[in-house]
UniProtKB/TrEMBL annotation:
The family this protein is said to belong to: Belongs to the pyrroline-5-carboxylate reductase family.
Name of the protein in its database record: Pyrroline-5-carboxylate reductase
Gene it is expressed from: proC
Top EC class of this enzyme: oxidoreductase
Domain Pyrroline-5-carboxylate reductase dimerisation: 170-274
Domain of life: Bacteria
Chief location of this protein within or outside the cell: cytoplasm
């Protein structure tokens, strides 16, 4: 059924309705976006139905149906299928000239533009899953075909889910992916390790869960609200000769900083490999 003309430019189509699209859609709707102006293409029935049920957005099995009349197309499929998905929509993109926003790790704006038929306006965005709570952060890079209105549209879409940071050099988007795109998983890994250690010290599981999660929440709030760099906050917890110092010395002796640097370098490299593997 044709959509009313008033919704056309303002409509956002998601191609892919998996984990990250769900976080973005949930964040947008929670912050007042009109669900009727969000269309999602997702081939998996259960995911599609859950998006419609939970957020009231319009869902489609077919990407062509989702993008019809939408001014912004958000590509939220895995890097490995991005080329096929874009090429399948290239003819429509040539006619509609949408703003294309990709959230895929590794895939470059040059690849996306070429797969969409050439000279497409493409924003490469790297959000993260706290977007669902409006607590995300997104790195953004726009190719030369994106005008000021397109940059504004992309930033406004992603800012519904948290902070946005424009990145001037696209080569740095793989580092953004490694730091903030993947970053929530590092914190969850730390939480797992702290809970395991708490239980190993004899704490009951439910107490360990509460102690760890509230500690991470409180520390994250201090990082964002105290206006002080992390090293200063750490020093103020660390009494000379006290318990924290004993733990910090164990972390440093175990090479925590080197390990974190190696992990982020590995993720950055993987982003570059995803680009090369899908060329
Ligand atoms: N999960 C995360 O924390 C983040 C993921 N990303 C990026 O987001 C993208 C999606 O990742 P996830 O949501 O984690 O993966 P996912 O696998 O949960 O979602 C991808 C969805 O695309 C659907 N799909 C496959 N072919 C399709 C087609 N032809 N048309 C429409 N939908 C199709 C799949 O059924 C699946 O539900 C990836 O490119 C990833 O690099 C970016 C930032 C963070
Ligand atoms: O693991 C991945 O490849 C995606 C990109 C950033 C977070 N998840």
């Amino acid at each position: 059924m044709p959509r009313p003309a008033s919704t056309l430019e303002d409509t956002t189509a998601f191609i892919g309705g998996g984990n990250m699209a769900r976080s973005l859609v949930g964040g947008m709707v929670a912050r007042g976006a009109d669900p009727a102006a969000i269309h999602v293409a997702e081939p998996v029935d259960a995911l599609r139905e859950a998006l419609a049920r939970d957020f009231g957005v319009r869902v489609h099995a077919d990407a062509g149906d989702a993008v019809a009349g939408a001014g912004t197309w958000v590509f939220a499929v895995k890097p490995q299928v991005m080329r096929t998905v874009c090429e399948g929509l290239a003819a429509r993109a040539g006619d509609a000239r949408p703003l294309a926003v990709s959230i895929a790790a590794g895939i470059t704006t040059a690849q996306l533009s070429a797969w969409l038929g050439g000279d497409a306006a493409v924003v490469r965005a790297m959000p993260n899953t706290p977007a669902l709570l409006g607590a995300g952060v997104t790195g953004l890079y726009a190719n030369a075909a994106v005008d000021a209105a397109g940059r504004e549209r992309a930033a406004s879409l992603l800012s519904a889910t948290g902070e946005t940071v424009w990145i001037a050099d696209e080569a740095l988007m793989d580092a953004v992916t490694a730091v903030s795109g993947s970053g929530p998983a590092y914190v969850f890994l730390l939480a797992e390790a702290m809970e395991d250690a708490a239980r190993a010290q004899g704490l009951p599981a439910d107490a360990a869960r509460t102690l760890v999660t509230q500690t991470l929440l409180g520390a994250a709030r201090m990082l964002t609200e105290a206006g002080e760099p992390p090293a200063g906050l750490r020093r103020r917890v660390t009494s000379p000769g006290g318990t924290t110092q004993a733990a910090i010395e164990a972390f440093e002796a175990g090479g925590l900083r080197t390990l974190v640097a190696e992990a982020i370098a590995a993720a950055t490299l993987r982003g570059r490999e995803l680009s090369a593997a899908n060329d």
